[in-house]
């Protein structure tokens, strides 16, 4: 059985955490199937009509409209019309026969086309209509290189999502995760960055020693992570675009679980050089650290509340792992979770109203979401037996988490209510430690 995150800390098994389960199997040929549980009664019904290619050259490999359809479908906020139920193929608003889409029980319809632009680029024009009234809601064009047409499609999905839900879409974002490929003693670890749906994976850093705990800077330009390439754990911060990096902490003992503050000026981290693992905060300008917790227990996995005033962390000070909250300047900690005998690895939604965590009982660990605005109400959003490391999308609508598929680790994206779930198609190897990045600058 895979060892859970907190148990790894407790047993100080960081060096072998990934290696014990690594396999040289690829996921790149998998089909990204979306699983819908029960459906969502309030989901918006929308038809994404296949976009026409009106360019002079070879049609692009990327099917823009299909990327948009899949983005909206896996969000849980939309029920997209299946491709084989699309009976008419308008490409412009004046070609839409709205009675047809009323019969198909659609609330919205998006049409579009792809055409040539200057410099070999492609221009994607799209329109969104309300079917009942025939009202035009959106009409825009986005130009991008042929090689980045998936990125253009994600931006189209974001704009449609925002226009209908009044919430900014998070499809044109990136995720980070760690892979381990090969078998002992020749395992190759890699810190990867990919699109939010797992496509376009890129290597940030490779190592023959474990890599752990990627954490995005608020501007999306840097990743903090843990590496054992020096023999012991050390925390690095690396520029994604340039690859330049620096060691932030390599003190004696554990250097782990980095987390950027919302303003990017501080880093929460776990250090054990004074004894037990405790939470510290580092000022990234001066590199001075402040000790936040001091307990005869394991305190780790601190994440920031959106206002930057508090930290939510995991501690076994009450006997078993639970989540606690403490001021980011230090002070008394208060317990946050009470339901369930094991709660660890918090991820906080953008407005602070929800906390996702790995919740365990016996040998079963699943992803739970605590709705703080509704007291202690908890919703289970994953069905697996060892699910862990949840990470909220920047708009709070979806979560990433790590799960097991036989002997290997895989990643799932799930709607925040748990009703819609999709396994991501990722690069080869055992996949762990997902971290959903911030919004990209428009």
TrEMBL record:
Stated name of the protein: Tol-Pal system protein TolB
InterPro entries linked to this entry: 6-blade_b-propeller_TolB-like (IPR011042), Tol-Pal_TolB (IPR014167), TolB_N (IPR007195), WD40 (IPR011659)
Domain TolB N-terminal: 33-136
Subcellular location: Periplasm
Keyword Protein transport found: no
Native source organism of the sequence: Tahibacter amnicola
Oligomeric form and interacting partners: The Tol-Pal system is composed of five core proteins: the inner membrane proteins TolA, TolQ and TolR, the periplasmic protein TolB and the outer membrane protein Pal. They form a network linking the inner and outer membranes and the peptidoglycan layer.
KW Signal (keyword) present: yes
């Amino acid at each position: 059985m895979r060892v859970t995150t907190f148990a790894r800390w407790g047993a100080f098994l960081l060096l072998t955490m990934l290696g014990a389960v690594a396999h040289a199997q690829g996921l790149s040929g998998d089909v990204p199937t979306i699983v819908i549980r029960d459906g969502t009664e309030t989901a918006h019904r929308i038809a994404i009509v296949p976009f026409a290619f009106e360019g002079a050259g070879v049609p692009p490999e990327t099917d823009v409209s299909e990327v948009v359809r899949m983005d909206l479908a896996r969000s849980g906020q939309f029920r997209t019309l299946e491709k084989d139920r699309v009976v008419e193929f308008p490409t412009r608003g004046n070609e839409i026969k709205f009675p047809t889409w009323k019969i198909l029980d659609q609330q919205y319809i998006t049409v579009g086309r792809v055409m040539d632009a200057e410099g070999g680029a492609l221009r994607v024009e799209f329109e969104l209509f309300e079917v009942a009234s025939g009202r035009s809601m959106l009409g825009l064009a986005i130009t991008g290189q042929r090689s980045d047409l998936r990125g253009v499609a994600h931006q189209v999905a974001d704009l449609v999502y925002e226009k209908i839900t009044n919430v900014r879409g998070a499809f044109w974002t990136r995720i980070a995760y760690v892979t381990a490929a090969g078998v002992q003693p020749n395992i190759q670890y890699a810190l990867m960055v990919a699109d939010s749906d797992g496509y376009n994976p890129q290597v940030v850093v490779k190592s023959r020693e474990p890599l752990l705990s990627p954490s995005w800077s608020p501007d999306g330009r840097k990743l903090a992570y843990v590496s054992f390439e020096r023999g012991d754990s050390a925390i690095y911060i690396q520029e994604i675009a340039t690859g330049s990096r620096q060691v932030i902490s390599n003190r004696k003992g554990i250097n782990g679980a980095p987390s950027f503050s919302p303003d990017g000026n501080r880093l929460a981290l776990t250090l054990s050089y004074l004894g037990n693992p405790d939470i510290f905060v580092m000022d990234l300008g001066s590199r001075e650290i402040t000790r936040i917790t001091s307990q005869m227990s394991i305190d780790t996995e601190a994440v920031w509340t959106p206002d930057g005033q508090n930290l939510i962390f995991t501690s076994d000070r009450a006997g078993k792992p639970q989540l606690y909250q403490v001021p980011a300047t230090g002070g008394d900690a208060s317990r946050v979770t009470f339901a369930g005998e094991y709660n660890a690895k918090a991820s906080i939604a953008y407005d602070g109203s929800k906390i996702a965590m790995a919740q365990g009982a016996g040998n079963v660990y699943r992803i739970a979401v605590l709705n703080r605005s509704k007291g202690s109400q908890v919703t289970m959003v994953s069905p697996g037996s060892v699910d862990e490391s949840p990470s909220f999308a920047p708009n709070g609508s979806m979560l990433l988490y790590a799960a097991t598929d036989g002997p290997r680790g895989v990643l799932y994206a799930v709607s925040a209510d748990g009703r819609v779930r999709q396994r991501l198609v990722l690069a080869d190897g055992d996949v762990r430690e997902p971290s959903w990045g911030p919004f990209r600058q428009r």
